[in-house]
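Q: My labmate handed me this sequence with no annotations at all. I'd like to see what the chain might look like in three dimensions before we decide whether it's worth expressing. Could you predict it?
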Amino acid sequence: MNGMEFMDQFRRNPKWAPIPVIMQTAANHPKHIVEGNRTGVYYYLTKPFEEDMVISLVRSALEDVNR
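A: Here is what I predict for the chain of 67 residues:
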């Protein structure tokens, strides 16, 4: 199962659907990013990435969930 297949199944479960997912991957072709967004990822993070960026994204995701 790849990440996109996982997201399709993850989002179908009402218990898990509201959880924001940050997908971290080396696949950075625009079609992959569009596909990731289509599956409902909160943010599609490509390699290489900065630690500060990940921390910022996690904080934003948590803030959005707690609104």
